[in-house]
Design brief:
InterPro entries: WWE-dom_subgr, WWE_dom, WWE_dom_sf. The chain is an alpha+beta fold and about 675 residues long. It has 21 helices and 28 strands.
Length: about 675
């Protein structure tokens, strides 16, 4: 009774009270009874009798003062829960202080004659008090199966804090009054000594914790990126305070809430990820970039691009790719690989690795996609497909994941050029690097590790950006820089990359007279198919989800040549050097970042590397293959002549063509069935 959710019942005012009746005195207070019936009204409008001892309690208070207002935990239905109830005999109401559910009650079949309506002033005071209470509320959190902490609602946090302060840090209590429990009415026990919340029906336990209770001030502004206006917008004071309080909670990287000023009518679930500073509407799937400014900081309204896009943009500079950059001209001993790859794994090792299965699920890693992915149908589909690929390729290949967004159009164009010239299977994946010149200096991971100590700016060095990409070794494991579960749906494309597409096309052999028109046609084609092109002066994708995930499979024999384990900024992780390929053969929870030397002489060959692109925007993901066909159709007339193809291939490979290359049109030869490409066989 009184523990269910639902809207507040009408609070009724009592008429003139009937004569009092004497109580029948029992052997004790618990056994007290009365001849006067007391009843309460349920959600269906039916009247139900209080238990005899509860009726006796009410009658005793009524006999003392017919207009009494009192609080009690002594109702028989409340044994074990200690929920506080307020009883207003003047207005004949009973209110659950935890859920705020108010029910009409009556004595001897007489109910109030008209509805009690609080005055506008009372409503205003109540709303102001509630707002003040919310602003001052101590945050409480619970941990889900994905090891992610979530905030309790303001009302639930207030209930926990009240119980904690009243009864102490070693106490426990039972309740059905959690807001999330309104439909289910399951009994819960909260154990402060062990910081556990137990569902007494299912037996499930969840860890809880009490936050630091930070009150945000206007001195810490929060902003969100508007792709439509191409500028940062300021959160309101109340919303900024809410975000700041969540941001300050130790370990609170993920924050879920509906308590936003613009969200009162819609009640959509918003997911904030402070690791990558993004906001996701889990109902619409729209994601936005957010940022927290330091007190007193004056930020530009313009946005900077993501690290991958801006870094690769620097690497695309004409000086760098033609070899005049210091790093590229410092005496590298690379040269084209141009080898015929021969598999050398034993059948025993392949069988063992197949038995261990998907790399991301090894060592008992939970298949938990996190709050953002699990609430999104398209995201869940993509993650399941990636894990399916992992299982298929587990015998002979290792996997890495590379997240990107603003650079997506550059990657797509490189893939299409490689399809026309080099048989690259662009219908399945983008190509992160195409221009070979930087690889003359750093052709592989071994050479990169030799150069790395010289780079004060670490993996932000132009020499790295020209050849390397950042990645993670697991789809499911947590990561300090770019966890796939956070960055996939949260990708954003805000950096101005004007001119880079034209520069890339020129480097790929497109005649200068045709570069400008071709770039415009490509941007228009991309926008039509749903790819975010705002970084190139085009349109943002409608969903706001401009993130992409490149799933990269490298043959186990080649892993140590092109991939090394790292910490943030590319610092080598010596613990996983066993070498790295050996570490990836174990049945352990694979985790951690990687740096990949994306040598195009290797990455365009399906015998060495297989890749799959997954896009967060459902429309573009479904239309990507059509987009690639449109791209290759735009390029073929321009790169159609044999002389033009030879010039383009020489430009891409720095003047020296690989021995395996022929000037024939490779467009048709690049086609491969999905079933064959998705097979681990060579």
């Amino acid at each position: 009774l009184g523990t269910t959710g639902g809207s507040l019942s009408a609070c009724l005012q009592s008429p003139r009270m009937p004569p009092k009746k004497k109580l029948k005195k029992g052997p004790g207070a618990a056994a007290a009874t009365t001849d006067v019936p007391w009843e309460w009204k349920d959600d269906e409008g039916d009247w139900n009798a209080f238990a005899p001892e509860d009726a006796a309690l009410l009658e005793t208070r009524y006999d003392h003062d017919p207009e009494d207002v009192f609080v009690t935990t002594d109702f028989s239905f409340n044994k074990g829960y200690t929920t506080v109830y307020e009883v207003d005999l003047k207005h004949m109401t009973q209110t659950n202080e935890e859920t705020t559910v108010c029910r009409a009650i009556r004595r001897d079949g007489v109910e109030a004659s008209h509805v009690y309506v609080p005055s506008p002033l009372a409503k205003k005071k109540k709303k102001k008090a509630a707002a003040a209470e919310e602003e001052e509320a101590m945050p409480w959190e619970w941990k889900d199966d994905d090891e992610t902490w979530h905030h309790f609602s303001v009302k639930d946090a207030a209930m926990l804090e009240t119980k904690y302060l009243e009864h102490g840090p070693k106490s426990s209590f039972k309740t059905k009054g959690f807001e999330f429990n309104a439909k289910y009415k399951s009994p819960y026990e909260v154990d402060f000594a062990h910081m556990l919340q137990r569902n007494l029906s299912s037996g499930n336990d969840r860890k809880i914790r009490r936050g630091v209770g930070v009150k945000a001030t206007a001195a810490v502004p929060w902003q969100w990126w508007s792709a439509e206006d191409k500028a940062w917008q300021v959160f309101g004071k109340k919303d900024a305070s809410l975000l700041e309080a969540a941001f300050q909670v130790p370990g609170g990287a993920i924050f879920l809430t509906k308590d936003l000023s613009w969200n009162e009518e819609h009640q959509s679930q918003y997911i904030y990820d402070f690791t990558v500073m993004t906001q996701l509407n889990s109902d619409s799937g729209t994601s936005r970039k957010i940022r927290r400014l330091k007190p007193g900081h004056k930020a530009s309204s313009a946005a900077s691009g993501d690290a991958e896009a801006s870094g690769y943009g620097a690497a695309l500079s004409a000086d760098f790719v033609t070899g005049s950059h210091t790093a590229a001209a410092s005496g590298g001993s690379g040269g084209l690989v141009s080898f015929d790859f021969a598999p050398s794994l034993s059948a025993t090792l392949i069988a063992q690795q197949k038995k261990l299965g998907a790399q991301s699920k090894r060592g008992g890693q939970l298949t938990a996609f996190g709050p953002a992915i699990s609430k999104d149908k398209h995201g869940t589909m993509c993650f399941k497909e990636m894990l399916k690929n992992e299982a298929t390729f587990s015998g002979e290949w290792v996997v890495s994941y590379h997240s990107y967004s603003a650079a997506s159009l550059l990657y797509e164009v490189q893939a299409a050029v490689a399809a026309v010239l080099f048989r690259f299977k662009s219908q399945f994946a983008t190509l992160p690097r195409l221009l070979y010149k930087p690889f003359e200096h750093i052709p592989n991971a071994h050479r990169m590790l030799e150069e790395f100590p010289k780079w004060k700016d670490r993996d932000h060095n132009p020499a790295f950006r020209g050849v390397g990409i950042c990645g993670t070794s697991s789809l499911l494991a947590p990561d300090s820089e770019a966890p796939p579960k956070s960055v996939f749906l949260m990708g954003y494309s805000v950096g101005p990359l004007h001119g880079l597409l034209e520069k890339l096309l020129g480097q790929c052999g497109v005649p200068s007279s045709k570069v400008s028109d071709l770039a415009k046609s490509i941007i228009k084609l991309a926008s039509t198919h749903g790819l975010d092109t705002c970084a190139f002066g085009g349109k943002p994708c409608k969903s706001g989800r401009s993130g992409h995930m490149l799933q990269i499979f490298v043959r186990r024999e080649l892993c140590d040549d092109y991939v090394y384990p790292s910490f943030a900024y590319g610092v080598p992780d010596k613990k996983r050097f066993q070498p790295f390929s050996k570490y990836l053969q174990k049945d352990v929870k694979v985790a951690g970042q990687v740096r990949i030397t994306a040598n195009p002489d290797v990455f365009i060959r399906a015998t060495c590397v297989r890749m799959f692109t997954f896009s967060a925007d459902p429309f573009f993901h479904a239309n990507r293959q059509d987009f690639q066909e449109g791209l290759t159709a735009l390029l073929k007339p321009i790169l159609g002549a044999v002389a033009t193809r030879i010039k383009a291939a020489k430009g891409i490979f720095g003047g020296t063509l690989p021995s395996w290359w022929t000037p024939d049109d490779q467009g048709d030869a690049s086609k491969m069935s999905a079933s064959r490409y998705a097979s681990s066989a060579l």
